[in-house]
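We modelled each protein-ligand pair independently. The example shown here corresponds to the magnesium ion entry; the chain sequence is given first, followed by the ligand as SMILES.
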Amino acid sequence: MKQLPAETVRLLSSSQVITSVVSVVKELIENSLDANATSIDIKLENYGFDKIEVRDNGDGIKAADVPVMAVKHYTSKISCPEDLENLTTYGFRGEALGSICCISEVSITTKTAADDFSTQYILDSSGHVTSQKPSHLGQGTLDMAQQDVCIYMV
Ligand SMILES: Nc1ncnc2c1ncn2[C@@H]1O[C@H](COP(=O)(O)OP(=O)(O)OP(=O)(O)O)[C@@H](O)[C@H]1O
Ligand SMILES: [Mg+2]
């Protein structure tokens, strides 16, 4: 037997969280609902196989959380095993955004009520921010996932 390389383990675990276009959309809608959004717009290019966009008018992501927002096992929703017994959110694993980054090219544009303007962040395959620029969107969050490797999405 041989131990799998870390990148292969990452791809395999991501493809257990993200099994289809539908699960990308489901995870992003759940994030919007957890952020108290009252409006969610979804755009699909080529039925979602080329590009998926989900935009909400929710709370947005705090600047302090941005560096880890798409890093696996970081979540704002639970902090200890006991919290699993009293879940009030759809998400709690801290895996969805990191898994989507692993199988597609992701950008996240977000603005909280405390921010003067929104910022668009480009993420790499491990969910780390590689660049950022100011944007014109209002409060909330826009997730854009462009297809990269579709081989793991069946
Ligand atoms: N649309 C959004 N609006 C506000 N915050 C968001 C949004 N999407 C993600 N976040 C923040 O990023 C974190 C990571 O999101 P992610 O979906 O990866 O994990 P999660 O929702 O905590 O758990 P799960 O993997 O079970 O969905 C969330 O905990 C939340 O704090
Ligand atoms: Mg989530």
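The radius of gyration is 15 Å.
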